[in-house]
Amino acid sequence: MKSSSLLKKYNIAAPRYTSYPTVPYWQKEAPLSEEWTLRVEKAFQSCNEISLYIHLPFCEQLCTYCGCNKRITKNHGVEAPYVNTVLKEWQMYVDLLPSPPVIRELHLGGGTPTFFAPSELKRLIEGILSSAKLPSHYEFGFEAHPASTSFEHLKVLKELGFSRLSIGVQDFAPEILKIINRHQTDEQIERVTRQARELGYESINYDLIFGLPLQTKDHIRENIARLKTLRPDRLAFYSYAHVPWIKPSQRAYSEADLPTGAEKRALYELGCELLEKEGYVEIGMDHFALKSDSLYKAMEDGSLHRNFMGYTPFYTRLCIALGASSISDSWDAYIQNEKKIEDYSAKINNGEWPITRGHLLNQEDEILRSHILNLMCRLQTSWEDPSDVCDSLYEGLQRMDEFEKDGLIELNPFQLKVTPKGLPFIRNICMALDARYWRRKPEGQLFSQVV
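User: That's the sequence. What structure does it adopt?
Assistant: Structure tokens below.
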């Protein structure tokens, strides 16, 4: 079947599978604090290494395409109180655990982490590390807005152990940056990249988005051409998710401005082709890396993992997330913190766990989660072991007939493989295994389109 026919057939709304079950299918009632803390202790007993995510939600300006939880303000007086609250939440976990946690990876996300002054970020990280241990090999990374990331930010974080940063480029074209209200320049991107390399950062990632308003093939060509000299080690090449019913700021431009369907798919295919010519290898879904990068090496040796922070070379059973709206994962449970900064802070300052919702996974959930994660990270999964099987797995496999006929997958006894042809439709393939989705299909708009 031709590419255009496949797109017409499979370009439907589907989850991105940053978790299974996906957030809309979590249980209605939030888990009790006692239930969550028991799951945390259980996960920590199996391994004392953790992943740590810290959500720093403040931005000075609103980028209209953005789907993240953020607070727009120019008042930097919010920094110190927020850092104080995050450190209090961290102390709640430290008091819960029987020994100091070993931080295998740490990521600062946002919002805009570099909204915070270098001194406040230093106070935050030193406060975290004062009650934790570090293994011989670890990765600390942060998201960098090129317009607000100073040399001092880079220097202070490098001294604290950070070796990786992700620069939010999105697109280089001034007309696209203008319509999405993102204020940055080529010179700022180049400066942050150069300074990070001079300071010894080991891995630099660029976020690029296809499907933005006004974007054409010429924009994609120009974006990839810039990589010849800048040479980031990794790239996230994301599909723009147009969900104005969730993020009203996306109504700042018209649907008529957006490339959709075959036009948008052509942007993706062109980007993939050009990235491959530049030496980047596709990693799972939406990600690319040079062969010298740890993400590529993790894919090669089969250790690639995916959590709420994205693809990572490390697997930890316990992922603790601090800050407003952040999501923690003990493998058998998820919890999300209060989304509003005021609600989050009030609970923490009252000594309460700031849980607003979550989900306790049952045995079926855990089995399906493993298979979906395998597909996302290794593009294959198998079920020779009886512990990897449940009735809903077989029900999901029965939904794979069309994928097999169209050459998107290969089904063998006890094994499913995604073909190169099927990679753009990995979300469709995972959705076939999503038992909770098929038991209760959404009645209205819930997820973004696959392409």
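The first helix runs from residue 3 to 10.
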